Amino acid sequence: MRKVVLSLFMVGIVFGQSPDSLFWFHPDSAKEPSLKWPLVINQVFSPEYWGLVDSTKTVSRESEDGFRVQIFETQSANEAQSFFRESSTALNDSVYLTFDAPFYKIRVGNCIARYDAIVLQKELKNTGYKTTWIVRTRIE
Q1: Enclosing H/E stretch for 29
Q2: How high does pLDDT run on average in the chain?
Q3: How many whole angstroms separate alpha carbon 99 and alpha carbon 80?
Q4: Cys staple from 84: which of 16, 32, 97, 114, with CB 3.0 to 4.6 Å?
Q5: Is residue 47 part of a domain?
Q6: In a domain, 84, yes or no
Q7: Looking at the predicted structure, is the pLDDT value of residue 123 above 90?
Q8: For the whole model, what pTM was predicted?
Q9: Mean of the pLDDT values across residues 34-57?
């Protein structure tokens, strides 16, 4: 008897509600307050702040599209640092360590033309870096 009464009660609850009783809130009627940003963010965009930042710059570098030869790639920061130190002392050219998630990459050179990068790649292979490839990137 209890099961029958409980079943009828549940059926009454489910079918007794109006069809839109679950949708008591209409999203178009929402009135959200305007955002009030902290004063700190407004100070970052002030001209005085940028004047201070620009005055601390000592070196400005021009960059352009070019090529580098990538000689190493790893996910380990320690391995990348040690390989970077070894290759910086072993090579006469500019060596760069960059991080493009999730990989640390060691790249060599600043070649404007692809032909120069091919010549550099051959020199690196003769030096002992067997797995090298040419990468198009921004150079200094």
Answers
A1: none
A2: 77
A3: 10
A4: 97
A5: no
A6: yes
A7: yes
A8: 0.56
A9: 56
